[in-house]
Amino acid sequence: MTISYLSTSIFLFLRKFFEMTKSELFIELANPDDKGVSRWVKVTEFVGRYKELQLGNGGSWCRSSSNLAKIFNVEFDKSLTSGNSIDAVRLNGFNENKTFNQAIRKDIRDYYKKQRCVMLGVKGFSENTRIEIDHKDGRKDDWRVSNINTQRRDDFQPLCKAANDVKRQICKQCKESNQRWDATNIKGNPYPFYEGDAYYSDELGCVGCYQYDPVEYRKQCVLRITKEASDHTSDYIMKKLYPKD
Asked: Is residue 57 in some structural domain?
């Protein structure tokens, strides 16, 4: 799947409203291009706004186990000064071997934790009714969503634990069979999908499945039923007025 990232200007605009992690500060400073490659950033630049990046005890924010290294290939230059200390750091492309990072940006978490489950309408404190923030794409293979800098609010939805547990199993079955879940399994749902058909495709991904976005499913059902009712009404009137045409 193609990896795409916000331009630096948009990134800066968004991030100024939120507290930035050290990884995010370095990305801002290094300014990688659309291939994930940045300039060499000397450690002497870790001053002022970027003072938190000072490496100190090995620089945990840029280690191989860091969130930064899960997204980018992080390289070090130790040749500029004597000794074995790190003199400069750069990003050298995206880490194609990374695992999906399930972290969700704080502003998104804060937004959804106040809301009710979009499937069951509950929001409580018991184990099954407490709100969890769900990755709508149950396959978790979109690296834009894996990156807290580029994920969007509409990549997620509030689900109670009970609904999220069920959805997780449905998504697992879909991944194994490439057969999408039929929304008419719920009485009152008029259509199996709001977009696409029963077969999972790379083009649509999870879009169109009730489990992916029950709110959008309901909206699209209203529009579709309205259109069908309008078409049938017009057809009835025409046949009534002009029965032989």
From this structure: yes
Inter-residue contact 20 to 14 (CB < 8 Å) = no
**Mapping DSSP to helix (H, G, I), strand (E, B) and coil, where does residue 136 land?**
coil
Integer Cα distance of 113 and 245 in angstroms: 59
- Domain-embedded: residue 34: yes
Q: How many domains does the chain have?
A: 3
Domain assignment of residue 154, given as a range: 102-177
- Candidates 139, 154, 148; CA nearest to 66 is 148
Summarised one tens digit per residue, pLDDT across range 28-45 is 999 999 999 999 999 999
Lowest mean pLDDT among 32-36, 86-90, 200-204: 200-204
What distance lies between CA 202 and its chain's CA centroid? Answer: 16
Q: Assign 89 to helix, strand or coil.
A: strand
Residue 1 lies in a domain: no
SS3 assignment, position 105 = coil
pLDDT value of residue 19: 55
Closest CA to 164 of 213, 101, 117: 117
Look at the pTM and tell me if it is higher than 0.90: no
